[in-house]
Amino acid sequence: MTLEAGPETVTTRDAQSTVGTVGTVEAPRRGRWIDVWDPEDATFWAGKGRAIARRNLWPSIFAEFLGFSVWQLWSIVVVSMPKAGFGYDTNQLFWLVALPSLVGATLRLPYTFAVPRFGGRNWTIFSALLLLIPTAGISYFMTRPDTPFWLMALVAATAGVGGGNFASSMTNISFFYPEKEKGFALGINAAGGNLGVAVVQLVVPIVIVAGAGLSLNRAGLMWLPLIVLAAFWAWKVMANLSVANSSFRTSIAAAKRPHTWVISFLYIGTFGSFIGFGAAFPLLIKTTFPDITPAHFAFLGALVGSVARPFGGKLSDRVGGAWITVCSFVVMGLGILAAIVSLKSGSFAAFLISFLVLFVASGAANGSTYRMIPAVFRLTTPDDPGRARREAAACIGIASAVGAYGGFLVPRGFAMSTSHFGSLIPALYVFCGFYVLCLAVTYFCYLRKGGPLSQERV
Questions:
Q1: Does 242 share its domain with 141?
Q2: Do 182 and 283 belong together in one domain?
């Protein structure tokens, strides 16, 4: 079967047939897989690869944006729950914030496997439609203040499906781009998703109070048509790549690499901080500065962190991800110390600025740490570029899963610090110490003089 439609051609096969049928098409068509894909070939990339990669990037960003929005819905909803008649205490509210991150982190590994198993386009459609479950749950249960905590916690946990989207989206996009553009492409893809945290914290408070009274169920209803739109867009323009063939065996091979776990550890400090602080920030403002309205400021942290992420990837393409990661940990440590000083002085302005610095540094470090992954695997597997790319993609899934547990640990750390010490300061000291450790690990593994990769731009 041959399909012709213009100057740009790619080799495809019919997804419904068992034998590949070669044809030519202008762009990825629904139900088709791209069988031949070599972004490292400059002629291929300039002629048609770049355009097709971008066609897949934008729907992926939109679906991931919605995934993050749904994943972090509870971070802003819990702030208004006491006013809506829900009688949960502060510790229970922190649990509702933390549970979606715990589930989302756990789902990221199977979501990574889903791309090679089902295809990036197919999985984007399915994972987008899954977001209807947590949004419908919020729409229903936010009208029932007598809901027992265990049931509300279960509803909150379903929002974790939005967190899984990141791993599958990043894995899929990593196969579309050449090494020299991977840092920026992954940074843009991730930043689009990360922006969902800022948007949900900005828009939801406006929507739930539009008109008279407080309607928390709108926090779920508002996303339903957008979710359907994301699934339709992915169905219409995205493609599945046959070369995206990272398997469970490949992931096992990647898991045996020490660098996989080093980078995963660093990602707890970078992305774990971003998503953890993003989830906890509205409730931190509400509980620490009761006279301040969280909706006026909470979204700023996730916003600046999201914008910083692609710039972290871009700088890493130029000077190396390890250097940007080290510098980011230094800034994050200083931001933590400034936050401690602001809490002791009772200054909200200083507290806000300190956390904005933390968000910017963690956002940039998200991009730089991800940029390190393909570079490390390429340099440690020089004789087999194909294997390096597959294991790097598997590492992305593993690191994104491990790092996302920070979204659970940070809110629970704040809850425990408040419960046992009546202050956030002990938790902040622990986080600062952790950043010092992350800095030391990055320097020792990738930058120290005489190290195995010190002469390379990791």
A1: yes
A2: no
